[in-house]
């Protein structure tokens, strides 16, 4: 009796330990023999992705062959945390669809071309926390999303948004808690005209909008939007609202991003609840903003370290309210004005650079280099000097040999590489700005 019980228990353990089976299905709209009544195999593929979405289960992979799929695919069957349902275009970006609406958790959308001429159409939509429809654990990887009058990717929570190209869209990404947004390119935001109070105006837009906690933006490239008429339009690289229907945000990391052309580098508003905190900007290159760079309204614990700001409005870093100074740090930043028209308030002789409004508590602000502006130099090691960039006309903001920014920063243990991946420090100390001078540095492209 005992032996039979042990045998049964061993069989159960082996059954539980055995990997769950998963299927691979094929969809090929260009195959004349394809039909949703087929087996969904490579030899007998299905006709539509929607049929695959209604069939696939946790761990399954749906391979989508090249062709134009006249579908907005709704996915309502969930995968599991360790066994996602994957929809994969093979070869990458040769299957064109009108969009994906994810009404399920743990779904992966990989390698599709997504475009839709319908008004307000989005690319991949996985819901929004404030609307109570956010999905969990979805992945959007390697897609080409273009020519939309809506948002290219709305991530849901605990998502991965990686290696996507988004071009000619109203907004790049809208992300919620626990999401990683990495190595994406947003090339050109397109204004959408709306009517309000009898007047028409461009709808405000963002390369990236976030709402929630523990969100990381890393290694993204935002560029291409024309500066003309942008002041009336309103375009931010990174923004959120702690107001209206949006909850507070906390622990937001913005690092190693290259960003060109906006009205503000970052404009997260937290004026209603005053509960948002801990937003970190490090190793970012911000170029050409009309009004302001980093503007944090009523956030606390703001960290701005080893960034380079080029032609970033009146104040590339601006503290306006007492709460914003609580626990905040500004170190090792390089601020330079190479075009006077990027300082619209007061002309070339106006104060610009870093500003802590009068009467506010002190900010831990030091080891910053400034050029082409009048600045208050809050720390004893803040200094004014020409950066000596390699080729600023071509967007190359690395430091040349002999630059006063070399070894002029303070050690920051959280920043061990520069924007190009060069280890810090290379010399006696940390360099200021996004690039660490090295004898043979890696090159970075520009807008």
Number of strands: 39
Name the quaternary structure. single chain
Stretches with pLDDT under 50, minimum 5 residues: 13-19
* Helix-and-strand structural type: mainly beta
CATH topology: Pectate Lyase C-like
CATH superfamily: Single-stranded right-handed beta-helix, Pectin lyase-like
Determine the strand fraction and express it as a percent band: 35-45%
The CATH architecture can be given as 3 Solenoid
How much is the radius of gyration in Å? 25 Å
Per CATH, the class reads Mainly Beta
Instruction: Report how far apart the termini are.
Output: 76 Å
Largest sheet: 22 strands, parallel
Q: Would you tell me the overall average pLDDT?
A: 91
- Helix amount, in percent? under 10%
**Number of discrete domains:** 1
* Morphology call: elongated
């Amino acid at each position: 009796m005992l032996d039979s019980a042990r045998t049964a228990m061993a069989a159960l353990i082996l059954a539980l330990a055995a990997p769950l089976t998963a299927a691979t299905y094929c969809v090929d709209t260009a195959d004349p023999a394809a039909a949703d009544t087929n087996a969904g195999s490579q030899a007998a593929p299905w006709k539509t992705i929607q049929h695959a979405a209604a069939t696939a289960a946790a761990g399954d992979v749906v391979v989508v062959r090249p062709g134009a799929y006249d579908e907005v695919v709704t996915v309502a069957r969930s995968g599991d945390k360790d066994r996602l349902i994957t929809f994969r275009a093979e070869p990458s970006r040769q299957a064109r669809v009108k969009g994906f609406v994810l009404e399920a958790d743990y779904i992966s959308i990989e390698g599709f071309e997504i475009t839709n001429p319908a008004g307000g159409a989005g690319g991949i939509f996985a819901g929004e926390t404030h609307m109570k429809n956010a999905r969990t654990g979805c992945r959007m990887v390697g897609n080409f999303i273009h020519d939309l009058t809506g948002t290219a990717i709305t991530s849901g929570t605990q998502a991965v948004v990686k290696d996507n190209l988004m071009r000619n869209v109203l907004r790049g990404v809208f992300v919620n808690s626990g999401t990683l947004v990495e190595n994406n390119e947003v090339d050109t935001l397109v204004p959408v005209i709306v009517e309000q109070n009898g007047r028409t105006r461009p709808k405000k837009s963002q390369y990236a909008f976030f709402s929630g906690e523990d969100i990381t933006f890393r290694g993204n490239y935002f560029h291409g939007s024309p500066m003309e008429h942008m002041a009336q339009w309103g375009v931010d690289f990174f923004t959120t609202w702690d107001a209206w229907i949006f909850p507070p945000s906390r622990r937001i990391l913005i690092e190693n991003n290259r960003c060109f052309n906006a009205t503000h580098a970052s404009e997260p508003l937290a004026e209603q609840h005053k509960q948002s905190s801990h937003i970190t900007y490090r190793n970012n290159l911000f170029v050409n903003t009309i009004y302001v760079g980093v503007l944090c309204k009523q956030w606390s614990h703001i960290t701005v370290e080893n960034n380079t700001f080029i032609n970033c409005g009146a104040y590339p870093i601006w503290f306006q309210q007492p709460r914003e100074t609580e626990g905040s740090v500004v170190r090792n930043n390089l601020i330079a004005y190479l075009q006077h028209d990027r300082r619209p308030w007061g002309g070339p002789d106006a104060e610009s650079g870093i500003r802590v409004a009068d009467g506010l508590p002190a900010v831990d602000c030091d080891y910053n280099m400034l050029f082409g502006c009048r600045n208050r130099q809050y720390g004893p090691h803040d200094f004014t000097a020409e950066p000596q960039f390699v080729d600023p006309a071509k967007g190359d903001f690395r430091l040349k040999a002999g630059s006063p920014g070399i070894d002029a920063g303070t050690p920051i243990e959280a920043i061990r590489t520069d924007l190009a991946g060069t280890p810090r420090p290379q010399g006696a100390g940390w360099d200021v700005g996004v690039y660490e001078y090295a004898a043979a540095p890696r090159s970075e492209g520009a807008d």
